[in-house]
Amino acid sequence: MNWIITDFEEGARLTFKEPNDGSIHWNDAQKESVKQALRDTYLPSSTAQLLLDQAVHINLLISESGSSGQYIENEKMTPTIMVDFTEIQSLYYIGKDGLFKNMSLERVLIHELYHTIENRHDLVNPETGETYVRNQPRNYNHLSFDHLGEVVRKTNQVMLEACLESEGDGRAGGL
Ligand SMILES: [Zn+2]
User: Fold this and answer.
1) What is the pLDDT of residues 116-134, one digit of tens each?
2) Residue 170 forms part of a structural domain
3) What are the distances in angstroms from CA 166 to CA 97, 114, 146, 161?
4) Could you list the residue range(s) of the whole structural domain that residue 13 is in?
């Protein structure tokens, strides 16, 4: 048995957090959709199991700030990510086949959890190995520039293993 099944009670290893100002609240349908998304990736994917089993606890902070793409850094023991359902529904990415794809809750959760649990960033400077800071010029033409990035690569692998996307759906680049 794995913890997604046995310990997936709220407050055990998963906490649904709300902003301190009380402006937004999780509803039951939203909580269930997150649990289902985690089950749907974890159960069929050994890559997702390797990732999520490292987390002692996961915090999910509901947000309406348009910042689902954010995670709270340096929270390795308690990975904390923001979930904005409205934003996720309006997000697209470019697939490996060059076509636009709808972002999914599963992809956002795994991507952001990978950032925080593994403490990895999307794109790094190929010469120094350091993460680019916002708006820093990026040497995209460098021969060893990793345009995909480890986080997207691993997320693509999880989505394939979980049969949630086909090969061409895999996200083509970082961020
Ligand atoms: Zn990212």
Assistant:
1) 888 888 888 999 988 888 7
2) no
3) 11, 20, 22, 9
4) 3-165
